[in-house]
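G.,

No rush on this.
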Amino acid sequence: MIVIQAKLIFLNQEDKQIVLDLMRRWSSCMKFAYKRLLEGYDRKTLKRDLQGMFDLNSRYVDDAIMKARSTLESARELGKSPKKVIFGGRDLFGKLQKRHINGKAYEKLKIRWQEKRKGNLYSRGDKSKKGNLNTRIEVRKNGTFLRINVGERKYVYARIEAGYKKNKRREELLQEIAESNIPYSVELKLKNGNIYAYFAIEEEYPEIKITKEKGVIGIDINAHPGNISWTEVDEKGNLISYGNMPMPELASGSKDKREYFRWQYAHEIIEIAKKKNKAIVIEELEIKDKGKRGDFSGRKSRRIRHSFSYKSLLSKIKTLAKREGIEVIEVNPSYTSIIGMLKYAPQYMITKDISAAYVIARRGLGLQEEIPDNYMKFLNALTVEELEELKEHVKKTVRNKHLKKKHLREINKAIKFLQSLESEPERVLKPLYGTSFSTYDFWRVLKVAVVTPLSPEKVPRDFSTLKELLIQGKWGDP
């Protein structure tokens, strides 16, 4: 999506007041629709009732309902209570409630919050109406104008000033949009007494030319220490090359600075894919791990939401890839780190981050990860008593309370898993037969049995110790 920001200059103060009144009514309509959606009202009922209540045409009301629904869905996806959403901004509202600012500063803060709360208007584009019916760009001899529908057959015109310093390229682009009749959405916002317009058009992406036929590039983004790991594989899933891209700039700095570097790193990944002529495999953008309480409070979902805009970086890689005609495959990231560190890190002598990217790449090709034979034999010989001994060892050696709790929880799960398979004569050689467990449960037990004893205080970076067990089947060395 391409977004162009511009300032609106009105011919007279009366026209501006008419538009401000329209924005106030639309904002109220959107907030009212949000409350009714929470109560279970459907779109048709709302659309019929809200037109007369707020004196808006059906298109404005429909757009208000759509915005209210998207706000509701966003709150649910982020694990927030939809009933606690504050229009105008929670941070600003919190500052106003505390009253730690007085006088003119407080009044300025209050005006800013009111502008964010009441100064909004959104109008969707429509291809059948040659762009946008309620807010249309019109090109005249004396400039480019926005025609705003303020009532039944009543319009207000505002001159579009593209940027603080008049930007000719922006204005030319807006003129091209108006003349091409392509659909564009317009959003008006009130800031410091001025009305700004945001014009958005959907991009038309070229045909995909670089596919997974010749292999893929697997991407694994790590919150700590903050880097992108990538691997190149051929069409059969064989490892060809790999690399690591540190991202220190994303750990601190202003929002704009971090946004700039996210685009830079995304461009670097695209250049690698173009050079290698291979598709890109990334983790799914949707956060499906809601945690035990169902409110996205799990460690993984917190990492995704808070650590250097994980989702934003992947989204940028996806967008740039589409612009270059590169296929992007999204895969479920479950257990990619565990499988990578146990199976491929010791085999290829690579880090766990690189190995996780390798698993992601193979998963993008549709390849399944089987547990190696020697690991299966090791699991078949593993006993509950040995895991009980490991539990006691962790209790005595691990000082970090959080880490100790995590280890003990994982060991208890592994014990429970082994106990459930005691009745099976060939419990590991035919692991899924007659059980409710998946292959992932065996990888979890394997991690507990071989990684935790190696380094109970932290996950090791070097997994070469496992090479003898993986390749030669040797185990039992303290």
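When you get to it, here's the other one too:
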Amino acid sequence: MKIAIIEDEELAAEALAAIIRRLRPEAEIIQTLPSVEEAICWLTLHASPDVIFCDIHLSDGISFEIFRQVSVKCPVIFTTAYNQYAIEAFQVNSIDYLLKPLKPTDVAKALKKYEDMQQQFIVQQLNGLQQLVHQPARHATRARFLVKIGQSIKAIPVEEAAYFMAEEGVVFLVTFGGKRHIINYTLDQLEEQLDLSDFFRANRHLIVHINAVQEVKPYFKGRLALELHPALEGDQTVSSSRAADFKQWLDL
């Protein structure tokens, strides 16, 4: 595990490094960066580490500026004495938010979270390879759905679908104009027919179009709360197991 530390206080950086070495002796701390400017320069010129521990208040500014200027793909664990930046941290590749003074137990939990995510990613890759080998080719993505309106049949282009929702055993196509139409497909069947760069299976009852997602907020137990357009009654959430994939899909 290769780790970079972004921290402007030398003693704090050394203390964090000591905690990491004690918890993960095999880990390699490849760089300690004391400022926004130096972090931008180093991350631009070097391969990304496996994980970054990053303070928020640095000597020359707020560390979020680093991630606005450099595309950082690895997970980030934020460390700070302030708790008002949790939402903004969530918009970066944040997997944890630790308040100073840092406790070894908190650092251990953050490292374990990172390792669990990596293990889950490996399992997903293996499952994906197995599916490619054993499953038949996917159907072409659907361009429209036929729905019944009174005595007529109407074609609804797929780009007009804001989301598909299952309610008491019935699946509805809901348009961006707020109209609901019953369709004769399950959500599992729809996943096989939709362009998954545009649609995401948020939970057992909901598939959403990327343009229908207006706001995303942290929710209980690692889940994400969604605000959709058109609005949908009740709490609409993404499960904790799918939260990382959802953030990647939204390019957060």
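The domain at 2-131 is CATH 3.40.50.2300 (Rossmann fold). The chain has a mean pLDDT of 86.

Enjoy the weekend,
O.
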